[in-house]
Amino acid sequence: MPSxxxxxxxLALASTAPAAAQGVGEGFDVLAYDLDLRPDxxxxxxxxxxxxxxxxxxxxxxxxxxxxxxxxxxxxxxxDQPVRVLATxxxxxxxxxxxxxxxxxxxxxxxxxxMPARGVTLLPTGLSTGYFACDWMVxxxxxxxxxxxxxxxxxxxxxxxxxxVGQLRExxxxxxxxxxHRWHSDAxxxxxxxxxxxGHFPAIRASTPxxxxxxxxxxxxxxxxxxLFAQTEDMVAFFSDRAGLPLPPSGYAQLLVPGxxxxxxxxxxxxGLDHLEAEADNPASxxxxxxxxxxxxxxxxxxxxxxxxxxxxxxxxxFMVAAWREQAFGVQAYRDEVARLEARRARLEETGWxxxxxxxxxxxxxxxxxxxxxxxxxxxxxxxRELVGEEAFWRGLRAYTQAHAGGTVTSRDFxxxxxxxxxxxxxxMFDEWVYPSGRQALPPIPGSAGN
Length: 451
Ligand SMILES: [Zn+2]
Fold this sequence. Notes:
- By secondary structure, the protein is of the alpha+beta class.
- 31% of the residues lie in helices and 29% in strands.
- The chain folds into three domains: 28-115 and 133-192, tricorn interacting facor f3 domain (Immunoglobulin-like), CATH 2.60.40; 203-293, Neutral Protease, domain 2; 304-433, Neutral Protease, domain 2 (Orthogonal Bundle), CATH 1.10.390.
- It has helices spanning 4-16, 225-228, 232-243, 273-279, 288-294, 311-329, 331-351, 366-388, 390-404, 411-422, 427-433, and strands spanning 28-39, 46-56, 61-66, 72-78, 81-82, 84-87, 92-100, 105-114, 120-123, 126-129, 149-157, 161-163, 167-174, 178-184, 197-199, 203-208, 211-217, 252-257, 262-264, 268-272, 303-304, 408-409.
- It has an eight-stranded mixed sheet with strand order 5-4-8-2-1-11-14-13, with no helix packed on it. The chain has a five-stranded mixed sheet with strand order 16-17-18-20-19. Strands 9-10-15-12 form a four-stranded antiparallel sheet, with no helix packed on it.
- A hairpin with a 2-residue loop joins strand 16 and strand 17 (211-217).
- Helix 3 (232-243) packs across helix 6 (311-329) and helix 6 (311-329) crosses helix 8.
- The relative contact order is 0.08.
- The chain binds zinc ion.
- Zinc ion binds next to helix 6.
């Protein structure tokens, strides 16, 4: 038993200690990110003046913690009051001058500079970014549910081209032979989808009844854009019809880049030339253009609330690629893809990691996580389609997409939409495939007894 003196000392320390430390993203909701960003197109280094408008949601919020990155953050202020910044391995901590009550909003401003550790790729004629936005700006990398408005002003050499988020509202000359490209989001966006590209990129446009398309060449090698992206318009028509929604008002761009890149962002995707060359002799094998395009609806417009339900982004998208192949190349193309999904499921079962789709734990590898969230997720969609029938399945998917566009979702939202469309209780099937039961036994870790 501790002595009275130690107990009193502990009580004294507890009463003077700061409020319990908040984790990354806890206690506040981001409303808007505003950046004046100067990327160095030669090196990939960045400097910026950034503002974050937020609303306190927790009790007595005295700090904001954002995802860690390798940048130097300085000159932080809240209004006219200075803000202390602590950069740690687990987060960037802004210590507010006073605690804010729930519901109060405020604007944090600071500067940043440095070489991002991830997320910036140098191209032959510029650079691109994708997925790791919070490495080149300050944001919440793992909070897909905290969508926010974005104003991104890119300061670039005069004559450069750019891709950003939403609409390019203005390109205006500024001092020093530069121009500012003012991009503004169409709708609140999840941080992992914030991206830009800048450099010299030849481009062509195509108008469709479902929105404007741009095919953009980042290879520096005069790619045959019209030919490489020839299937895109048919895909847009198919996905728009199945979603019951057109593309966003600002349209959609595809940036062709060297290598095997395949990454969606809010208003454009990075498409690796290697994939398109591999698919050239067999159009029915095409997946990368369709997959990243399908994310415009499933992933970007309708976004998983947390990573635990990431299968809603990736499983539905993987399934939609199979559905597009069926539409374009016939039912055998769909059956071939279903057979590949089943083979992947069989290999997954052998690993012992055949987890429910919404299992929130840590997978042993990216490959195993993808086998669950992408392949098993798509196979679940196949089985659901078989169970409820063609008409109810597509009507349910459309209702789900329309109801949640611009928002965030959980597996329960998807279940509710398919149940409403089919008039069936699907809880047994969702319990079998989707929801963790709390009984999932992890495979033994080699070298340990396990339990
Ligand atoms: Zn994907």
